[in-house]
Amino acid sequence: MIKVVGVIGAGVMGIGVSQSLAQGGFQVKMIDVSEAALTKAKEEIYNNVRMQAFFDKTLAPDAPEKVLESIEFSTDYDLLHDADFVVENATEKWEIKKEIYPKLDAICPEHCVFAVNTSCISITRIGALTKRADRILGMHFMNPVPLKPMVEAIRGHYTTEETIQTARDLLHAMNKECIVVNDMPGFVSNRVLMLTINEAIFLIQDQVSTAEDVDTLFKTCFGHKSGPLETGDLIGLDTILYSIEALYEAYNDSKYRPCPLLKKMVDAGYLGRKSGKGFYEYQVS
C-alpha cells in the first residue's frame, strides 16, 4: 500500500504533482537542490489550492493549510528512506536525470517504484541505471497537473504488470487515469506534439503568419483548446527545445531538427509563461 510518495523537483511539474498527491491523501516529500525553489513551490501550492477552493465550494476553507501539512520540503534525499513511490520531475536532460537514479536506488526501500516524468527520455535507459528496472516506468503528466485527468504511462523493457498496476492505483487516488504505451523516444504525445510546435515556430521564422493567427487556425479549424504556440509557451520553450533535441538525437532524423528561432528565443530567456515572455507576454508573480 502506498503511503509515502517522494517528488523530485520543485518546478512547475513537481509543484502540480505534489499538490495532486497531497489532495489524493498521500504523505509527500518534495526534494530539490534549491532552498529558494522549495520556498517558491510552497507558496505556489498554497496559492493554487486557495484559488481552487474559490471555485470549488466542496473544498474546506482550510484546504491550502491541510495540503501543505501533507508535504515536507527538503534538499535531503535521505528523507526518501521510507518512500513507497517516487515521481521524478527533473529538467528534461539526460545529463541531469542520470545522476538522480543511482542515488534514489541506494536510498529508497526495495519495494519502491520509480516513475520518470518525461516526455522523451527512454525508460529502459533510466532503468539500466538502477537495480530495479522492473519497478521503473514513465508517467508523463500533462500541465497543469491538477486539471489534467489523463497521464501517458510508459512501459520500459523490464517494467512488470505489477508496477503498472501500482501506478494505476496511485493515479486513481489522484482522480486520474492512464493510457499505457511502449518505450520509444517521445512515446505518443510528444513524438507528435513536439513536431507540431517546432514546425509552428518555423512558420513564424519564415514569416508565413503571426503567432496569433497560427493558434487561431488550430483552435477554430480543428477544435483545439490551445494552439501550438500557446501550448509551447505553457510547457516552456526551453523544455520544447530539450525535447526536440532529444528526439533528434534518438532518431537521427532531420524532421526533428530544432528551429533556429526556438534556439534563439531560449538563449534570450524567452521561455513562455514562466519567464513572462514567449510568443505572447504574461504577468509573472
UniProtKB/TrEMBL annotation:
Residues 5-183 form the 3-hydroxyacyl-CoA dehydrogenase NAD binding domain. NAD(+) binds at residues 9-14, 32, 92, 97, 119, 143, 274. InterPro entries: 3-OHacyl-CoA_DH, 3-OHacyl-CoA_DH_NAD-bd, 3HC_DH_C, 6-PGluconate_DH-like_C_sf, 6PGD_dom2, NAD(P)-bd_dom_sf. Gene3D superfamilies: N-(1-d-carboxylethyl)-l-norvaline Dehydrogenase, domain 2, NAD(P)-binding Rossmann-like Domain. The record marks 140 as: Important for catalytic activity. Pathway: Lipid metabolism; butanoate metabolism. It comes from the Bacteria. GO terms for molecular function: NAD+ binding; oxidoreductase activity, acting on the CH-OH group of donors, NAD or NADP as acceptor. GO terms for biological process: fatty acid metabolic process. It holds the Pfam family 3HCDH_N. Keywords: NAD, Oxidoreductase. SUPFAM superfamilies: 6-phosphogluconate dehydrogenase C-terminal domain-like, NAD(P)-binding Rossmann-fold domains. This is 3-hydroxyacyl-coa dehydrogenase.
